[in-house]
Amino acid sequence: MQRTPEPELMDAPEQASAYAAADFSAGDQALIERIQALFPSGLGPRVLDLGCGPGNISFRLALADSAAEVIGLDGAPAMLQLAQQSLEKEPALAKRLSFVCLCLPSLALPKGCSGLVSNSLLHHLHDPLVLWQAIAQAAAPGARVYVKDLRRPPSPEAAEQLRQRYLADAPAVLQHDYLASLHAAFTAAEVEQQLHRCGLDQLQVAEVDDRYLEIWGQLP
Q: Would you state the pLDDT for residue 11?
């Protein structure tokens, strides 16, 4: 099926609250463990989490490496407000974990990042190249990159089957957004073309399970 873009920002209060209340802990921890398996020596001293939402992954990245500075970046103030509220409850992390409100593309991106992570941002972007350009812009030499996102099913019927399989009991707002995200997601071939256009051919692209893409590697 053809791609149908969705809104770039998830800034409605009901959206932010629904995502903050949902239990994504198993998937979030699996993502951290996958990063650790791919990069056993870690992501380095300065890690950027692009599209951090309410900060779930950012917190786990900071907890996984007590020496790393972690910056969570998102364009949705409602999401970042929740992330900041969670950070206030973790004062021990406040010196190493921060959140920045910024929409891509931007010249104000943090620079010199040794690790760049993004979970479920790519499909939100009307122009996907801004993510890969941001990674290239923010990365230090030798930076490690890990991106995970949904991939687009072959048909609306296949998308509906995925919704029923994974979110049948979720709140209506999450089910609606999930279906929209599947329609807005990219295929592996499309992502490979995006990487080529941005000079990031060294990153690998793989289909994972029945609904995800992984993009990872180390930059020169």
A: 61
For residue 65, give the 3-state DSSP assignment.
Answer: coil
Q: CB–CB of 111/138 below 8 Å?
A: yes
Write phi, then psi, for 198 (nearest 5 degrees): -100, 5
Distance, in Å, from the CA atom of 110 to the CA atom of 141, rounded to the nearest integer, reads 14
pLDDT band with cut points at 50, 70 and 90 for residue 170: confident
Sheet holding 97-101, edge to edge: 97-101, 69-74, 46-50, 113-119, 139-150, 212-218, 204-208
Taking CA atoms, 140 is separated from 51, 68, 115, 201, 220, in Å, by 19, 15, 8, 17, 9
What is the pTM for the complete model shown?
Answer: 0.93
Q: What is the pLDDT of residue 16?
A: 60
